[in-house]
Structures are given as structure tokens and as C-alpha cells.
Design brief:
The chain has helices at about 5-25, 95-165, 170-205, 210-240, 285; strands at about 40, 45-50, 50-65, 75, 85, 90-95, 240-245, 250-255, 270-280, 295-300, 305-315, 325-335, 345-350, 355-360, 370-375, 380-385, 390, 395-400, 405-410. It has about 425 residues and is of the alpha+beta class. The protein has a 6-stranded antiparallel beta barrel with strand order 3-9-12-11-10-13.
């Protein structure tokens, strides 16, 4: 063996001896691991306002179906499906040429009747005045006839006295007696004429009261009013020829074109979508704590960014179908930008009546069933406690099965073993 080989062999043996000595050396025992640090919280007694998450669809605030009672053809239609309209905005105009002609005819009749009323008024006044004048004349004639009769009766008495004394003849007395009888007939005739004139005056009445002449005027005025009412009716029909929107909304159906007759069909359908309804479906258990006026938030996943809309409950409706447990909750939402459209699927969150009890953070539950939390015992060991969730507002839940004042692990998803010691900030 050469000197270089012997040197290499000695170096190898020395290195091997050093390695063997290192492998046989005594090892030191490792230090004990510290207890893991955890965040904890203490359960407390209090109230929460739990929220119900319900699915549903968007529905219009109201649907308005527009028809026309006129049988006139359409001259113009101003809107199309999808147009946004305002209350009072014209939608269509029907032809009114025949109605305009009818209006002019009724107005002419009313004017004629008015003229007849004026004529009857003057004629009645004249007739009443003439009747009064005739009555006065007849009264004067009666008075004159009475005076003549009285005078001739006195003359007859004197002639009879003179006849007895032989101063006048029997013929003169007979002539005077005949004159008295004629005067009596004249008086009776004058009284009959006066009675007739008085009856005429009574029948004519006065223009401001009752009587033939006043009733004639009233009849003529009534005919005038009938003609004016007919004219007003035609005006109303002409006004209906302009079909206008009764609400702010969107045209979703148009069923009328220029030249067509309206008939009995639905001409336009308008949906009011501001405000708008979210109709949410719920079970009997879910609606049990929902009241009218409760605040609600609706999320529309179909919109960019899953837009949120705030509103309030306006109705909790009973079962939709008899015997079912499907209820409806109507939420009204402002929709000025008209982003929500009828038919969209939405998710609603509704605040219900407050619940009081032991409160724990939602993240303290050990799983999605929300039926267990991890409590820290007095010896700092972890113990799983079974609980039952009564309600939740999304961040805090009210549970049963644990007392207020208990210390629990704030994050129930931590990997901790049953009975494992932990450290935490007091």
C-alpha cells in the first residue's frame, strides 16, 4: 500500500469515528407546547330583531286595463309598447266628427228653447196684465150697472107714487118697471163677466208663483235644460275620445291602431312600477312574526352588483290556495329609476318582532346547523355545548341550552379538541 493510500484510509476512519460518536450522543428532551390562544366572548341576555329571508318575484304596483265606451274609429295612437307615460298623457284620439255635429244640433235646440222661454215669459206677462185689466174693467161695469139699477128702481118707486096720485099714466110706470128689469139683467151679466175675469186672473197666476203662465215658462225652461243636458252628454263623449293615461307607468300592451274601432276589447294595459311590489312566499312559521310596516331589504341578483332595495311590508296575505301553507308577504319598494321590473326573481330579508333570550354571535356555532357552541370551562378546557337557535338577525342569535354569562369560543370553526386547554384574554 502506498503512503498516499494509507493516509486516505486513516482520514476515512477518523471521519467515520467522529460520525459514530455524534450518533451515539445523548439528546435533550423538547420543551412542552403552550396552550393555543383563542378569542372568546361572554353570552348575554337581551333582545334581537331577527330577519326572515324569503324568495319571491317583483310585481307591478297596479295594472290598469283601458277600454273605451265610444264606437268611434281611432284617428291617432301616440304610444307604443314599452313607452313610459305620465298620468294625463294622451294615448290615442278617436274620431269625433259625428259627435261634434250632434253637439251643434243640441246647442241649436237649446238656443231655440231658450228663445221660446223668453217669448213665453213675455207672453205670459202680457196675458197676466191683460187679465188684470179685464178684471178691473168688469168690476167697473158691475159698479156702473148697479148704479143704473139703483137709479131706475128709485124712479120706479116715484112713478108708482105719482100713479096713485093720478099724476102719471100706468103706461109710464110699466115702462119704468121694464127698464128696471133690464138693468137687473145687465148687472147680472156684468157680474158674470167679472167672475170670469177673476177666474182667468187666478188661473194665470203670477210669473214668480204658480199658474198657467208660470208653468208654461217652466215647461219651456225645462225643454231648454233637457237640450243643454244632451249637449253636455255629447261634450262628455267628445272628452272621452281623447284616451289618456290615469297613472304614471309603462305601456305593456297596445291593442289599437289608427282607423280601428275600439269595440269591447282592452285597448291599453299600463303597469305602475314606481313604487313596485316584491311578492315574497313564506310558510306559516315564517309569517308568524312578520307584521305590517316591518322594514325589508330586497336583493335582485339579476341586476349588476346584486342591487339592494329598501322598503316595508304592506301586507301579510293568507294562504294562496285553500289547504296550503303557502303565504304571501307584499313589500312595497321605491323604484324611481325603474331598475326593478315585474317578473324579476328577488330575495327579501324582513325584520320580525324582537326576540329576547341568551345571545351568541352567529360565528360561534360549530357548523351550519347552528346547534352547538364551544364553551370554555373553569379549568380553561373546551367543551361542546348543544344549543337550539330561536332566531337570528344575521350577526347575533338567541339560543336555548346555555346560560347568560358563559364564556364561549368566538369562532366556532376553530380546530379544537374536546377537553383541550386554551388561553384567552380575560
Amino acid at each position: 500500500m502506498s503512503p498516499s493510500e494509507r493516509l486516505s484510509r486513516r482520514l476515512f476512519c477518523a471521519a467515520f469515528a467522529i460520525l459514530a460518536a455524534g450518533g451515539c450522543a445523548h439528546r435533550a428532551a423538547p420543551a412542552a407546547s403552550p396552550a393555543p390562544y383563542v378569542d372568546t366572548t361572554v353570552t348575554s341576555f337581551g333582545a334581537i330583531e331577527p330577519a326572515r329571508e324569503l324568495a319571491g318575484v317583483v310585481a307591478p304596483y297596479q295594472n290598469v286595463a283601458i277600454q273605451s265606451s265610444l264606437s268611434e274609429p281611432a284617428d291617432a295612437v301616440y304610444v307604443r309598447e314599452g313607452d313610459t307615460v305620465r298620468a294625463g298623457q294622451p294615448l290615442a284620439l278617436l274620431d269625433t266628427s259625428d259627435l261634434q255635429a250632434q253637439l251643434q244640433s243640441d246647442l241649436a235646440t237649446a238656443n231655440s228653447n231658450h228663445a221660446s222661454t223668453v217669448h213665453t215669459t213675455f207672453q205670459g206677462s202680457l196675458t197676466i196684465d191683460q187679465g188684470v185689466d179685464t178684471e178691473r174693467n168688469d168690476q167697473a161695469a158691475v159698479a156702473q150697472a148697479q148704479q143704473t139699477l139703483n137709479n131706475d128702481q128709485h124712479n120706479l118707486q116715484r112713478d108708482q107714487a105719482l100713479l096713485n096720485q093720478g099724476y102719471v099714466s100706468q103706461q109710464s110706470v110699466d115702462a119704468q118697471a121694464t127698464l128696471v128689469r133690464n138693468d137687473q139683467q145687465a148687472l147680472n151679466s156684468a157680474k158674470a163677466s167679472l167672475a170670469s175675469a177673476q177666474s182667468t186672473v187666478a188661473a194665470n197666476g203670477t210669473m214668480s208663483g204658480q199658474g198657467l203662465q208660470a208653468s208654461a215658462v217652466q215647461q219651456s225652461a225645462a225643454q231648454e235644460q233637457v237640450a243643454m243636458a244632451q249637449a253636455q252628454l255629447v261634450r262628455v263623449q267628445i272628452a272621452k275620445a281623447s284616451i289618456v293615461s290615469p297613472i304614471d307607468g309603462v305601456i305593456v300592451n297596445r291593442n289599437l291602431n289608427p282607423g280601428e274601432y275600439p269595440g269591447n276589447r282592452e285597448l291599453f294595459t299600463i303597469q305602475q312600477i314606481n313604487p313596485i311590489y316584491a311578492v315574497l312566499h313564506a310558510s306559516s312559521e315564517e309569517v308568524a312574526r312578520i307584521v305590517n310596516g316591518a322594514p325589508a331589504t330586497v336583493i335582485a341578483e339579476d341586476l349588476v352588483g346584486a342591487a339592494h332595495f329598501s322598503g316595508h311590508v304592506v301586507g301579510v296575505l293568507n294562504q294562496i290556495n285553500p289547504g296550503s301553507t303557502d303565504f304571501e308577504v307584499k313589500v312595497v319598494l321605491p323604484n324611481p329609476a325603474q331598475r326593478l321590473r315585474p317578473g324579476m326573481v328577488v330575495q327579501g330579508t324582513i325584520a320580525t318582532t324582537p326576540i329576547r333570550g341568551v345571545r351568541v354571535p352567529v360565528i360561534a356555532f360549530t357548523d351550519d346547523n347552528h346547534d352547538a357552541v364551544m364553551a370554555v370551562e373553569s379549568d380553561d378546557t373546551v367543551k361542546t355545548v348543544k344549543v337550539a337557535e330561536v332566531g337570528s338577525d344575521g350577526t347575533t342569535s338567541v339560543v336555548t341550552g346555555i346560560d347568560a354569562g358563559a364564556r364561549i369560543i368566538a369562532n366556532g370553526q376553530m380546530s379544537l379538541g374536546e377537553g383541550e386547554k386554551v388561553s384567552y384574554h380575560q
